Amino acid sequence: MAPSSRRAKRRRQLLEAARDVFAEKGYVAATVDDIVGRVEVARGTFYLYFDDKLDVFGALVSDFFARLAGGIQSIALDAEAPSPRTQLRANLARLVATARRDPAMVKLALSTATGVDPGLDAKLEAFYASLRQFMDETLETGQAIGLVREGARGPMLSLALGALQQLLLDAVSGALEQDEEALVDEIMRFLESGLLAAASAR
Q1: What does the pLDDT read at residue 97?
Q2: Most buried of 8, 20, 111, 174 (most Cβ within 10 A)?
Q3: Per-residue pLDDT tens for 30-54?
Q4: 18: domain range?
Q5: pTM of the complete model
Q6: CA dist 83 to 21, 72, 95, 134, 201, Å?
Q7: Dihedral sign, CA of 177, 179, 182, 185?
Q8: What phi, psi does 196 have (nearest 5°)?
């Protein structure tokens, strides 16, 4: 295995160990020793990849956001493309699938308490700012193509973000028993009840 491949593998092992430790103990109680103990490497090895536990936490949430965003595809409007609603549903299905594949990261990114560590607060605020900007741009595009109803995006954005956060947490905690297809159907019904434009428009 090439040195770069070995480094990438070790970094991934440390990230996965950190994710599991944070999920089990919480960010504050977790230590670097806990993380390296999961991978059975020397403490010094950790510092070849990360500055401290805050650095590895930041890497985890950044990677998680990238995976969430990576599942969202732009709505195509050419004649051969599926309807915008069909494409939206496919985006939602990928989002739910990504969350359910990594429940520990959903809980870490969306329910880690703030106000304990200023550095941690900054990492979480950056994550939420990126998510908010991404969602706002998505709503703006939706309004431009007639998929999302007209109106001020601010309240829509707050409602959508709050609902999305709680839904993903419930989806990975077992509070929602539906399979992914049924869950996405429910999300679409929720959106169509107040966020999307009338079905006849798109």
Answers
A1: 92
A2: 20
A3: 999 999 999 999 999 999 999 999 9
A4: 1-50
A5: 0.81
A6: 43, 16, 19, 22, 11
A7: positive
A8: -80, 160
What are the tokens at 202?
A: 């798109």
Q: Give the chain as a 3 state SS string.
A: CCHHHHHHHHHHHHHHHHHHHHHHHCCCCCCHHHHHHHHCCCHHHHCCCCCCHHHHHHHHHHHHHHHHHHCCCCCCCCCCCCCHHHHHHHHHHHHHHHHHHCHHHHHHHHHCCCCCCHHHHHHHHHHHHHHHHHHHHHHHHHHHCCCECCCCHHHHHHHHHHHHHHHHHHHHHCCCCCCHHHHHHHHHHHHHCCCECCCCCC
User: Looking at residue 3, which CATH number applies to its domain?
Assistant: 1.10.10.60
Amino acid at 86: T
Whose tokens are 């295995």? That residue is 1
Q: What is the largest CA-CA distance in the chain?
A: 62
